[in-house]
Amino acid sequence: MRRRYTYQKCQSQQEYPNKMDRISKLPLGIIETILCLLPIQEAARTSILSREWRYLWTKIPNLVFIEKEFQVSTDQTDRAELSLYNKPSKRRKMSKKSKFIDAIYQVLLIHEGPIHEFTLDMQVDDSGVEIDHILLHLSKKNTLKMLNLDIIGDGYEGYVLPISLFSLHQLTELYLNDCALFHERPFTEFSCLTTLYLNGLSTYDTTLLRLLSSCPVLKRLMLYCDGGTISDSRRTTIVDLFKCVPMIEFLSVRFFIVTCFVPERLPKVLPTALVDLKYLCMDHFCFSHKYGLPFLALLIRSFPNLEKFKLVMYEDYWLDEDEMGAYTLEDYSDIMLEHLNEFHILNYRDAEDELDFGKFILAKSPVLKKVGIFPCVKFDEEEESKILKSLSLSPCAAPVGEVVIHLEPN
After folding, report:
1. Taking the CB of residue 410, how many other CB atoms lie within 10 A of it?
2. Residue 307: CB partners within 8 Å, gap ≥ 6?
3. What is the pLDDT of residues 278-320, one digit of tens each?
4. pTM of the complete model
5. Which of 56, 79, 113 delimits the end of a domain?
6. Where is each FBD domain found (predicted)?
């Protein structure tokens, strides 16, 4: 009886995979999509499932490496698939960061087929030579469509981007966090780049303009830089900045960028309107700053087809006396937002100037359909009712379909 039981059990184990392994019969494209959704270490572990799965993970086109999520494992599978050493003692002597870098190198070396998306989130020393090697490898393949670098450097300026970055001619999306760019020579054109995200980029104002000018079909720009990271030559203006992005459709910008481009020379409107722009987000905005309303009015006047507008407020307690402004909304009575249908204000503090600006938007937007107000601190129902009443009594260019006062911060 015992032998028969053992035989039946083994027979059941042999039949089980054939009956239950439905995922292996899926089309290869679907399997690759599933593998792309897994952390790279988990994707590598699928190699033990069967002979058919052994090398599937080496063909996935989207690679994500996040240092904080990297797990140092003593599992034999991980050592076999993510290491070329086959000498565990050497890997044990390596630091976690070295093992992380080593794992990236091994994945890139055994990877087959094109790499379309690559994300790297890590902390580096002053040199960042490891990332230089990674970017050089990717530039030789030249199949990358999306690159996301979130680099925390030990130095003040951050990781200095190598010139090999500009050999990635197939890029359509580029995300750079806390990096530095100081190349003086002209850049190779990013002829396919439509999305550019720059957060905390250390650079010169002239270098930033050359970078933007090298992206002739740019549609989406997220520019979260200010005087803390951009060196001002006092030779470039905000007009020069927007000349570089004539086809822009989506703009999210930090208010302080204006201080890097001779703000004393702000015009009322750009010489050439950006007629394709439909979405504007102004981050870290402050009505009390002397360039607050002038800069905001310049953008609104220059984006005649604006449809969605988001304003993210910032505390004004940090302003020095010479930075305070005396402009009022009456100075901008000529403004009309003919196509605006959605307006949101975040970090709302129930200040008079913020409420007045909300009324201004209502009065100047004939097709406005939705207004959203998100407080910086929790509102009670009484405060919500007061704001709604104030807005409802103000002149409106058109009946607004929805005004939402959120009680909780965004």
Report:
1. 13
2. 278, 279, 339, 340, 341, 342
3. 999 999 999 989 999 999 999 999 999 999 999 999 988 778 8
4. 0.84
5. 113
6. 334-406
